[in-house]
Specification:
The chain is an alpha+beta fold and 337 residues long. The protein has 8 helices and 14 strands. The strands form 4 sheets. A 5-stranded mixed β-sheet has the order 6-14-9-7-8, with helices on one face. α5 runs parallel beside α7 (244-251).
Length: 337
């Protein structure tokens, strides 16, 4: 009988007391080969759990190319003269004169850029298992870009002196009404009617501030996710099947005026109020009231091959502006909910 020695062959076959067998290394490699052949590969690549919110809560005005600023014009009207109402008599010799005051608001824009590097060897390796490294990196880059837009829209960039939807210092912030027990303003301790009172109070304030112009009545309300969950989970009463959220959407003052109200969760309102309290924001979600500009959408600007890095390099750029509050009257903050 032929005597096989350890290490002479890749199979690492041994002869022990006249029997052919495998050592532990061969067994391990053999099992790895078997498992690899029997492995069921999930073709779906699991990405991080994440979400961006800005597309739901604000209008993005696109186009314009690379610019230094964006701007908007405001106009206010007034009359001069003693006869301000313009009522004429038979011998009137003084008529008011119409005047218009036109001013311009300037808003900052930000240049955004990232480089996407695709190593050649890594790309070749992943292609053998049906993966596209460039596509994976593209998805990550788009997520980072959208996350930056989220910060710009809701909070702004303090280091550049800008603010977002939830922290505009020029918007009036009021404290929510106190619950019936007299100890707190939090919605967790309030009745459905008390919560409705906070909602209607905010909507009415925007309507009054807009001189009762219905286009200035708030149609969009943002609240922290915890409060939104409370509205969905709690019922109007113990013997009712309707949630507080449904009750609010059906009985708010806006609905009676033909305004369709949206109440939505927004994590950026957690702790955004005075003293770190939770904030509610009521406003008109309309391009003519509040918006921001994306003057240059996310664009692949340049592509080059790097011999020193053995990679393909792609430069992505974009340009977007700060949040533009064209009217402050239709915006209201309620803190302490």
């Amino acid at each position: 009988m032929v005597n096989f020695k350890k290490g002479n062959f890749p199979q690492q076959i041994l002869n022990i007391k006249g029997r052919r067998t495998l050592d532990s290394g061969a067994i391990a490699s053999g099992m790895a080969f078997l498992e690899g052949q029997l492995e069921k590969i999930d073709p779906k690549l699991r990405e991080p759990l994440s979400r961006t919110w800005w597309a739901r809560d604000i209008v993005a005005k696109t186009g314009g190319g690379f610019v230094e600023y964006t701007s908007a014009y405001d106009v206010s009207y007034a009359t001069t003269g003693g006869n301000s109402n313009g009522i004429m008599g038979g011998e009137t010799n003084e008529l008011p004169i119409m005047q218009a005051d036109i001013s311009k608001e300037i808003y900052k824009v930000f240049n955004w850029g990232h480089v996407l590097r695709v190593p050649f060897i890594d790309q070749q390796k992943l292609q053998k298992i049906g993966r596209d490294l460039e596509g994976i990196l593209n998805n990550g880059l788009k997520l980072v870009y959208d996350k930056t837009l989220d910060i710009n829209v809701y909070e702004g960039f303090a280091e550049y002196g800008t603010y977002g939807l939830v922290n505009n210092p020029n918007v009036i912030a009021k404290t929510a009404t106190t619950a019936a027990d007299g100890t707190t303003t939090a919605w967790t301790k309030k009745t459905p009617d008390e919560i409705l009172s906070d909602i209607n109070g905010a909507i009415t304030a925007t309507w009054v501030n807009s001189e009762y112009d219905l286009s200035g009545m708030a149609n969009h309300i943002l609240i922290p996710p915890e409060q939104y969950s409370t509205l969905v989970e709690r019922k109007v009463s113990n013997d009712a099947s309707k949630s507080i959220l449904s009750y609010l959407l059906e009985n708010n003052i806006g609905k009676e005026q033909g305004v369709t109200l949206c109440i939505a969760p927004c994590p950026f309102l957690k702790g955004a109020g005075t003293g770190g309290t939770d904030r509610m924001m009521a406003y008109v979600n309309d391009e003519d009231k509040v918006r921001f500009s994306i003057t240059v959408p996310l664009t692949r600007l340049q592509v080059e091959a790097s011999a020193t890095q053995l990679s393909y390099l792609s430069a992505f750029v974009a340009q977007f502006g700060q949040v533009e509050f064209l009217y402050l009257q239709p915006v209201q903050y309620i803190d302490g909910i």
